[in-house]
């Protein structure tokens, strides 16, 4: 528990202090956001707002995590970083690097599109494939690896789907959720606020899995998770960094996270889903991301079939903008939807522990 608090506090402080420094640095260098011409007209006022703020989230998260473990070296109890935690942080950092390259190209070439879609997808797939292969290795003393080649909801279930099938499943999840957070990042504070809620859920899940671990107390509902406490530390570190960033990203935003932040945050929640063995619970916890992604799929698919649009504009938040809703109204209401999705996901997670009549 101490590591969770230290990681969250350090990353929060660094993000709160570091973000305004990044705002001044990026503004001085002209690292401003370019706005799509076909987007809502109200977004033109945001042109030139510093972007690539996701670099602050990634750096603050890493420092917060390692600081928490470094403090244990000064105490009698040694608590080194775990393989599970490091792999999730690798996924976050790797996808953040892909996003950083995309953001930098946008800024350098002064356009709203950065990496070509093929190159961007290739970067996500390479990072994701490395993560997928490594998380089924590194067994501990109880022969537990960070993940098994199985599907999971509240825990693993069913037979193994094989390394190849599991790798494809991991890649689908990672690319899907990193792009889902990216699609959600269209209004000030929307993606960062929703991600904070999902990360808070994973802090609670990691803690509960530790207290009911099969390595400590064998029971019918125990969890076979390799490093639940350290995964809670990772979630807390990123939560603190994301929360500190939200202070400056909330409407009206002084800085945007860019693809650097959205891909990194999508990657970290996907990584936590696999290492806590709650893969199919994540679409419920991150229901807002799923809804927004589905709005794009519906819009594109329906238009290709009928040449007509379901929404005024996709992703969904822009539909409500063009319907006359104020940006802050959309953001707050979507945060409420995200909170309801997290509450539903946590309710399902704890449901099996409810007393049976």
Describe this structure in a few short sentences.
The protein has twelve helices and two strands.
Provide an overview of this structure.
The protein is mainly α and 357 residues long. It has one domain (2-285). It contains 12 helices and 2 strands; from the N terminus they run ααααββαααααααα. It has a two-stranded antiparallel sheet. A hairpin with a 3-residue loop joins strand 1 and strand 2 (156-157). Helix 3 (83-109) runs parallel beside helix 7 (228-249), helix 5 (162-184) crosses helix 10 (287-306) and helix 7 packs antiparallel against helix 8. The protein is globular, with a radius of gyration of 20 Å. The two termini are 33 Å apart. The mean pLDDT is 91. The chain crosses the membrane at residues 6-27, 56-77, 83-101, 121-138, 158-177, 189-209, 229-248, 255-274, 280-303, 330-351. It comes from Microbispora corallina. Keywords: Cell cycle, Cell division, Cell membrane, Cell shape, Cell wall biogenesis/degradation, Magnesium, Membrane, Metal-binding, Peptidoglycan synthesis, Transferase, Transmembrane, Transmembrane helix. Belongs to the glycosyltransferase 4 family. MraY subfamily.
């Amino acid at each position: 528990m101490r590591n969770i608090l230290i990681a969250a506090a350090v990353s929060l402080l660094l993000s709160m202090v570091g973000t305004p420094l990044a705002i001044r640095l990026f503004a001085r260098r002209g690292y401003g956001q370019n706005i799509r011409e076909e987007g809502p007209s109200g977004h033109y006022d945001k042109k030139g707002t510093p972007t690539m703020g996701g670099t602050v989230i990634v750096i603050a998260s890493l420092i917060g995590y390692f600081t928490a473990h470094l403090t244990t070296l000064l105490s009698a109890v040694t608590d080194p970083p775990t393989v599970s935690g490091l792999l999730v942080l690798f996924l976050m950092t790797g996808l953040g690097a892909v996003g950083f390259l995309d953001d930098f190209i946008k800024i350098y070439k002064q356009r709203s599109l950065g990496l070509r879609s093929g190159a961007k997808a290739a970067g996500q797939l390479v990072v994701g494939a490395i993560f997928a292969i490594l998380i089924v290795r590194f067994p501990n003393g109880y022969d537990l690896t960070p993940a098994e080649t199985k599907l999971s909801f509240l825990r693993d279930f069913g037979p193994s789907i094989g390394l190849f099938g599991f790798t494809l499943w991991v890649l689908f999840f990672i690319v899907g959720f990193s792009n889902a957070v990216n699609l959600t990042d269209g209004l000030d504070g929307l993606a960062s606020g929703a991600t904070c809620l999902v990360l808070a859920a994973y802090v609670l899940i990691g803690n509960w899995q530790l207290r009911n671990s099969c390595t400590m107390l064998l029971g019918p509902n125990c969890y076979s998770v390799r490093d639940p406490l350290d995964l809670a530390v990772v979630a807390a570190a990123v939560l603190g960094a994301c929360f500190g960033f939200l202070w400056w990203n909330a409407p009206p935003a002084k800085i945007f996270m860019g693809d650097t932040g959205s891909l990194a945050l999508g990657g970290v929640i996907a990584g936590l889903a696999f290492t806590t063995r709650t893969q199919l619970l994540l679409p419920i916890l991150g229901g807002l991301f799923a809804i927004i992604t589905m709005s794009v799929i519906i819009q594109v698919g329906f238009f290709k079939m009928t040449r007509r649009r379901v929404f005024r504009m996709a992703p969904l938040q822009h539909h409500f903008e063009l319907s006359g809703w104020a940006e802050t109204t959309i953001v707050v209401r979507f945060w409420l939807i995200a909170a309801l999705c997290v509450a539903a996901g946590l309710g399902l997670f704890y449901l099996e522990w409810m007393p049976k009549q």
